Amino acid sequence: MTSSTHALPKTIYAIQHLAFEDLGILEDTFYDLGYRIRYFEAGMDDLKQAFEFEGLVIILGGPIGVYETEDYPFLNDEIAYLKQRLAKNLPTIGICLGAQLIAHALGAKVYAGHQKEIGWSQLKLNLAQNNPLLPLVNTEVLHWHGDTFDLPVQAELLASSAIYTNQAFRVGQNILALQFHVEVAADDMEKWLIGHTCELRKAGLNIPHLRSENEKYAANLELKSPLVLEHFIKHLNV
User: Fold this and answer.
1) In angstroms, how far is CA 176 from the centroid of its own chain?
2) Is 100 within 8 Å of 166 (Cβ atoms)?
3) What is the pLDDT of residue 129?
4) 112 to each of 1, 35, 62, 159, 163, how far by Cα in Å?
5) Is pTM beyond 0.85 here?
């Protein structure tokens, strides 16, 4: 890894919006790289300290919408702090809701999509210098969202899916937004099926089929997820 990796503080801050949507397999990756992890609970903890942190901050997923500020007023502060953080170009990764928050903070529109995207599929990756900006070639990833977003004007599109064009983008080397879930651990997938049962039933999805897909694809994603993280950290501009 480059010297920029070693310039990062050795603690990673992660902002959670739902208890079982944590860093998943990425926790082991961070530990292997010598980092510690500190979680912040959105809606419960004061997020100002997290967003002002000069090290890597990861904003995780959740079932609420960026635009639901009347029901969840803490989003107003979260968005305001995130805007300040992005303006400073501090290292930031957003996953699912986290990606939508980044898009919104950069001035793009976030809105309900035309259909739920829940399940496993491969991405259409944009390639640069003969290498994927996301090392996920021929890899099924987990999608679990109903909202989508427009691409921020200053962003570079990294990946699309068959259903939604904007699945991943970056701004420079330090800001990465992933609409899909790269962090899920195979052993945790039953938590998702239980915790999101209302959403799954409302969407008319077949839970045994989704469980079968989880069992088929999650272990392979676990092998690729650390590569995404290592690639991002290696190329940070800090």
Assistant:
1) 8
2) no
3) 53
4) 39, 36, 14, 19, 13
5) yes
Q: Which pLDDT score is estimated for 230?
A: 92
Q: Are 147 and 154 in contact (CB under 8 A)?
A: no
Please identify every residue annotated as catalytic. Answer: 96, 181, 183
The pLDDT score that the predictor gives to residue 133 is 76
> What's the length of the chain?
238
Number of H helices and E strands in the chain, helices first, is 8, 12
At residue 4, does pLDDT exceed 50?
no
Question: How far is the first Cα of the chain from the last one, in angstroms, to the nearest whole number?
Answer: 13
Q: Tell me the CA distances in angstroms from 26 to 35, 119, 120, 209, 231, one per residue in order.
A: 11, 20, 19, 26, 13
Residue 176 tokens, joined: 């990465």
Q: Could you tell me the residue ranges of all domains in the chain?
A: 3-234
121 DSSP β-pair partners: 141
Instruction: Output the six-digit token pair for 68.
Output: 């639901």
Q: What is the mean pLDDT of residues 137-145?
A: 95
Given 3.30.530.20, 3.50.50.60, 3.40.50.150, 3.40.50.880, which CATH number is that of 3-234? 3.40.50.880
Q: What is the rounded CA–CA span in Å between residue 97 and residue 235? A: 24
User: In which band, very low, low, confident or very high, does the pLDDT at 183 lie, cut at 50, 70 and 90?
Assistant: very high
Residues 6+ apart with CB under 8 A from 92: 56, 57, 58, 59, 82, 85, 86, 102, 174, 175, 176
